Fold this protein.
Amino acid sequence: MLRGLAAYNRLGNKNPTFKLVACYSTAGQRRQGKIYESASDAVADVKDGSKILFGGFGICGIPEKMIEALKQKGVKNITGVSNNGGVDDCGLGVLIKQKQLSKVIGSYVGENTELVRQYLAGELAVELTPQGTLAEKIRAGGAGIPAFFTPTGYATLVQQGGAPIKYDKNGKVTVSSAAKPVQSFNGRNYVMEESIFADFAFVKAQKADPLGNLIFNKSARNFNAPMCRAAKITVAEVEEIVPVGAISPDEIHVPGIYVKRIFKGTNYNKRVERLRITEPKQNGETAAETSPGQALRERIARRVALEFRDGMYANLGIGIPVLSSNYIPQGMNVMLQSENGILGLGPFPTKDQVDPDLINAGKESVTVMPGAAYFGSDESFAMIRGGHVDLTILGAMEVSATGDLANWMIPGKLVKGMGGAMDLVAAPGTKVIITMEHNARDGSPKILESCSLPLTGKGVIDLIISEKAVFQVEKGVGLTLLEFAEGYTVDDIAACTGAKFSVSPNVKPMAQISV
Amino acid sequence: MLRGLAAYNRLGNKNPTFKLVACYSTAGQRRQGKIYESASDAVADVKDGSKILFGGFGICGIPEKMIEALKQKGVKNITGVSNNGGVDDCGLGVLIKQKQLSKVIGSYVGENTELVRQYLAGELAVELTPQGTLAEKIRAGGAGIPAFFTPTGYATLVQQGGAPIKYDKNGKVTVSSAAKPVQSFNGRNYVMEESIFADFAFVKAQKADPLGNLIFNKSARNFNAPMCRAAKITVAEVEEIVPVGAISPDEIHVPGIYVKRIFKGTNYNKRVERLRITEPKQNGETAAETSPGQALRERIARRVALEFRDGMYANLGIGIPVLSSNYIPQGMNVMLQSENGILGLGPFPTKDQVDPDLINAGKESVTVMPGAAYFGSDESFAMIRGGHVDLTILGAMEVSATGDLANWMIPGKLVKGMGGAMDLVAAPGTKVIITMEHNARDGSPKILESCSLPLTGKGVIDLIISEKAVFQVEKGVGLTLLEFAEGYTVDDIAACTGAKFSVSPNVKPMAQISV
């Protein structure tokens, strides 16, 4: 029975000198089955104009050997699909510096100044896509789904069209994004997004077996996992090739069917984009003097912390939201999600604990708590978009009385991308809290009847917490003042707020979690 | 930094006497965090009329303790979403026997005679859904995707509507399926399918930690994995609860965020639906005499085997397709996919190797080859629909000159369901080979100008192999006779074929793989 299959047994020995006969592929390179000798062999048939998926999040889990090989090869006019644009001298930045890319499809490109320069100078097209939509477009491409509906980006530039993709040399927009179809399901509006499928997917995994089965390490799984499935030719560079059978069939992250080529990279130059360290506390150390700005941020954070509940899952944006996690009460369990693929985020590492394969969505070195889980970006945003995260907290440039949020773009100024923000606020069933200073630096209100900046989400906010006030936002009701800070009157709040609001019959002084 | 999170450390000890304080939930049952004491506690708040997802494939990986608890509880009017209907006295069959279900949504219900009786007697609604579409509808429900497009089922009853869902007592159809929207992408037509989200998901996993992180065993992962994500309340029954931190964050199949309740089941009564055993060969044993029918099947299988290529991934239907794997040449590696979640299917087990958690899509006990991988049903059909399986081989009742296939339904006769067949043939890029006896038992042709039976797929066939002939099917060209068996003339083939065909200039005798 199934006799022919027994041939695989020959690969199943524990001796890693594989018995496959070496042969020459169509591209001419020497290889053994799926195993290639080097990065340059594995990318030998990439042609000018190819569309390539690049795994990684920031510079974590990037296929650095293949990027270097593409630089050496000098192919041009590449469309690169990558969540980020790397940094100037690392990751996708290496190819951008060499002007080998004509287009980047990603969610956040702010860390690469050369990319932004080329974009604004009309040398590079940039198609900004919400991070979760990007992950799902890739997942769909691999899964034979040509299009799907998502709540993300509805009633924003992403859906309405008009986002600049390409400028000319004089800074005039020559290509802008098209409007996308909208359809209503169960009384809610959704955007139709089409899938992404590429010529190549270049991914980085921790280990592979000769059949191409892959295992990733920690948060280096990120976009690598869905990208494996969405290209004609997927090439995985790995740190270790183990014999067939050495990986348990229950533990494989990506089955070999998706992977056409593998090679072992050496001397990995893994960097941490934002190294953050927990310094061990010195005996007798006291809290540093806090600045007025710091005190204001702490006040907001201590109010936010009252929203945590035992057993809750939360995603916290950079800044005040993360700060609020300092005030989670002892004994209360709140599990933090990081959209690059972590559930159970822990504190920053000590120097010895730093692992370049373990970063948060802010690209900072982190640790995880016992019981944590790692997953790919497609799973992470399925979790977010599906409303499984109870609470999302993030900052804002402007908010409106109807719950609109603007926090990703100032037209005419630098556009870095929306990252995962549009997905985080779009999930029905997830409570969205906005934390921000009540007024802009020039004193103008940030809470408005309607936002003037391009939206991140329409009607998505549940609660606004500033240093001066707490507003509830309700559909069909608008703003209700629940609390205001000591030293202010309702009239003071009205004077510095650009939208009408009701005052709750139970309005009270702004609460603070006890420390 | 992130101080509150440190509370989780208390759960991270290796001592499984958890420190969480016991408390009473809204439903009144005693529990510790997510851990419930029993199945009856865990399902205490299920109400009449609930929509429930039941994990499992056939009776492999079913939540048997919760099914028993629901039987004891006696809730009625349940809509059960389950790939299969179990068998008469096991799995979902237990609840069907008690008439606790008013509707079943599944892909194949043929193993349960009582289910079919209730369906035809107007006592039970049955909504048949292609297996891959069912898995993707559930995956989408969990991922916040209200609808998606799939090639599966286009131009069949599934898309055109009219499939009987409910009969009255007199056998008249009172509810039939609605037509579904169609849209074209890249020149191909796709069906829009809406997602499934339920009140409860009842799943069976191998082990859990107190945070609800889950690990499945082998092919018992199947529908359990996607179902965890697509319900308001997911309850997992497990064979083992391990301490927090005992499962590596890289090895978790379903993160705890999706799982609200867990309990440990005991005395699992796992059954194998179709026990198949490889008997060790006796010395001097010779091949049994073969019947004429057997010889015919062997002839087809030996022709089919010529289509295998080294390194290929294939999905083989029950019968002649599976038989063809006996003839895969020594030294050629063909990796077999089984749509219930296996890549790298091996031969039937010896008596000692039988594992009820390891079955193929035909519900037979199997083994796997070294380098195999297990995955959930959503991943399995993403693989299939995405065209990653190179070859799919299955049987037919009728085929047409334009490549239409009919192999799942005879109107007025018993309808068992399409299982995964519609998904398997719909994938663009996958070669579809049909193996069948050239003529029906009454001698009538099965190769026709157009099919009279409801279609499994439209224009999906690439090659037809019967005991008499091999036809190529090409879009816009139709049938071309490539080979015919010894003892026949082209005129003979024409006489027993119900469609016109061209004869290849290179037409030759029907080839057979050498044994």
Observations:
- Chain A has twelve helices and 29 strands.
- Chain A has two domains: 35-264, 292-509.
